């Protein structure tokens, strides 16, 4: 979409509005050189409320030391370039020591702006600059508080993209049961690593969503964010299950008489993919979801178990057990995903018995 291409999001708009308000307030107060207020405002507009609060706390600590150093440089060294350079080194060391590295930029700006303040009416000039820092931080946080950062739709999009990438990789891996030549090992590993990066990026967006609610308790909350976290964790777990499935597919022998097993396992895995798609349409888009579909799947799962046991008993070595491992790992994917429907229904106020899902978790 166009607004995403150009980066026109709410944070961008808030940043521009905050700069305007900071400059306007400083103009009304007839402050000179209001750049410091605008710069401080930019720092204060963070992607979440909690990060804004942490930034303000760190900036206050850094500003205190910055002002002390700047006043010394301006008053005793008359803003000498060498003195400003040395004080900048000291300021960076202080920030590192206090673990407020993100405040280095504003601290250095403070030292430069205040350190070069002329001695004529020095006290008033320093007071104005300190006030500008306070104005910038206050306006930046105030806007963030009044117009709360929203990451809901961005989080949903990332979860949907993650789901789509997982299902695409799942389908490609399962098709190896019917291919004469398996997928390239390095290509599969690269796609798995890319998915893991997507998972981490999605978790970062989830964290921003949580940090934008100051009173949010992750341990007790049962809401859309809780469902999102469980969904991300389920996809991360399912990815590792898929890695094991593909490993077993590659190792599973193509012995005489094993084609029937391969076909049964293939159909089972493809049905799981179909159910996975239906479940995520319910989770992300509120599409109708029928539990009868899953109960019917469970009945076919029992039949699969019986047929596989019969076939495996008549094979002469342990290699065909890779087919059994495929079904076990696939069932874990199905269970993890299906369990998300219970969570969503409980969030909606519906009472769901654990046994309703547990009884279908058979092959383990």
Q: Would you kindly provide a written description of the structure presented here, covering whatever features stand out?
A:
The chain is mainly α. The protein has 2 domains: 2-146, no CATH class; 152-358, Methane Monooxygenase Hydroxylase, Chain G, domain 1 (Up-down Bundle). 76% of the residues lie in helices and 0% in strands. The protein has helices at residues 2-5, 10-28, 35-44, 49-77, 81-97, 104-115, 122-146, 152-174, 185-211, 224-251, 259-285, 291-313, 321-347, 355-358. Helix 4 (49-77) runs antiparallel to helix 5 and helix 4 packs parallel to helix 6. The relative contact order is 0.08. Residues 356-364 have low confidence and may be disordered.
Please give a handful of descriptors for the protein shown.
364 residues; mainly alpha; Methane Monooxygenase Hydroxylase, Chain G, domain 1; 14 helices; elongated; 2 domains; disordered C terminus; 76% helix
